[in-house]
Design brief:
- It is found in: Membrane.
- The chain is elongated and about 75 Å long.
- The model has no long low-confidence stretch (mean pLDDT 91).
- It is built from 5 helices and no strands.
- The protein has one domain.
- It has 172 residues and is mostly helical.
- Helix content is 81%, strand content 0%.
Amino acid sequence: MAGLGGFVFSMYLFTPITHEWGWQELLFSQAIRGISQQFAMAPIVTLTLGGIPKERLKLASGVFNLTRNLGGAIGIALCGSILNNRTNFHFSRMGEKMVSVPHTVNDFISRSALFFNRSGSDQTSEILASTKLLSQLMLREAQTMAFSDTFLLISGLLFIAFLLVPAMNKSS
């Protein structure tokens, strides 16, 4: 239970992520996650394979490893889909908000165009480059928010699993 609780805590520690995070902000969460994994795996194997007769243990171990790997692959695919959908969601919301503040957007594009003007490009290229820069900044922030959402979802699902641990049949 300590391992699963540590996983919940470590995933929740990732939720305030920003684009400015570096290794210093990730170190503690990753350390908690790594330590928790050590505490989580042994009980999972014991709960799963503890009641299996010795003559069937090899087959059961193979099935256990297969389902564990399959679950990991499905989890990664689902997280990828969630990240993609949440990125699109946040990007769209930011775009909607920008419509309500056109003066701020125009000011950003004008100031960025001045920066690109120093490189000697024409006005159309400057505006296009400024618009692309704004789009890239929006995408970066949308992806960061999507990661935060995904970490929150993972921590919530792990918390539900944590609450279900006492209900597991531990008898062999």
